[in-house]
C-alpha cells in the first residue's frame, strides 16, 4: 500500500529567531522554552534514543522528571531495553517536540544512574498505583497476556496493603549530562531557525545551523 502525503503541509508562522533572542547558557534557554511549553499536552515527554551492542538505535518516549544546571533526569526499570543499551553505551539523545509552539529541542550527552537516595525521593512522590506498577513490570520482556500483569498487580497490592511500597532495587533514575543542545523553531518557507550549543574548553559555544 502506498499513500501520497504530499499535500500534508504545515506553514510555520513564528517570527525569526536571532542569536540575541537566546541566552548564552543553554540550561537557562531550555528553562525559558519549557515554561512557555507548559500549556501543551505532556510538555515533559521526550523521545530517548539509545544504541544497542549491535549498533542499532532504539527510541521510546519517557518523561522528564526534573532538571537542574547539570542535567536531565528520567526513571526506568534497570533491566529494561534502554537500561541494557545504556550499560553498553552511556551516550544518548533526548528530543522534545513542542509542535504546538513550532519548536523542538534536542539534547545529547552522557547518561549515568542517579543515587538511590534521589531515586527514593522521587519514588515516594509517585501515586501508590505507580509505585506498584514499578514492581509489576519486567519491562521490555515478552508476556503472553495482559491478565498476567493484572494478576501480579493484585498480588502485590495485597502484599503491601498494610505498609508503604518499598523502592525496587531494579528501578531508579538516570541523568543525562549534556554535551550539546539544539533549539529549533519553525520559519516561513521552510527557513527554520536552528541554533546549536556545544560544550568544549569549559565553555558553551553557540552557532546557527542551516535549516
**Main CATH class:** Mainly Beta
Bin the helical content.
25-40%
**Approximately how much beta-strand content do the residues carry?**
25-35%
SS summary, helix count: 5
Domain module tally: 1
Which term fits the overall shape?
globular
- Supply the CATH architecture: Roll
Query: What is the CATH homology-level superfamily?
Result: Electron Transport, Fmn-binding Protein, Chain A
Structural class: alpha+beta
What are the secondary-structure elements, in order, as H or E? Answer: HEEEEHEEHHHEEE
- How far is it from the N-terminal to the C-terminal residue, by CA? 31 Å
TL;DR?
By secondary structure, the protein is an alpha+beta fold. It has 5 helices and 9 strands.
Task: Detail the topology: elements first, then pairings.
Elements: H1 26-37, E1 45-51, E2 57-63, E3 66-67, E4 72-77, H2 81-88, E5 91-98, E6 103-113, H3 116-125, H4 128-136, H5 146-159, E7 171-185, E8 193-200, E9 203-209
Antiparallel strand pairs: 1-2, 1-5, 3-4, 4-7, 5-6, 6-7, 7-8, 8-9
Helix pairs in contact: 4-5
Keywords: Flavoprotein, FMN, Oxidoreductase
Domain Pyridoxamine 5'-phosphate oxidase N-terminal: 38-157
Pfam families: PNP_phzG_C, PNPOx_N
Tag the structure with descriptive keywords.
single chain, 211 residues, alpha+beta, Pnp Oxidase, Chain A, nine-stranded antiparallel sheet, 9 strands, globular, Pyridox_Oxase_N, pyridoxamine phosphate oxidase activity
Describe the structure.
With 211 residues, the chain is of the alpha+beta class. It has a single domain, classed as Electron Transport, Fmn-binding Protein, Chain A (Pnp Oxidase, Chain A, Roll), CATH 2.30.110.10. It has 5 helices and 9 strands. Strands 1, 2, 3, 4, 5, 6, 7, 8 and 9 form a 9-stranded antiparallel β-sheet that branches. β1 and β2 (57-63) form a beta hairpin. α4 crosses α5 (146-159). The protein starts with 25 loop residues before the first helix and ends with a strand. The mean pLDDT is 95. GO terms for molecular function: pyridoxamine phosphate oxidase activity.
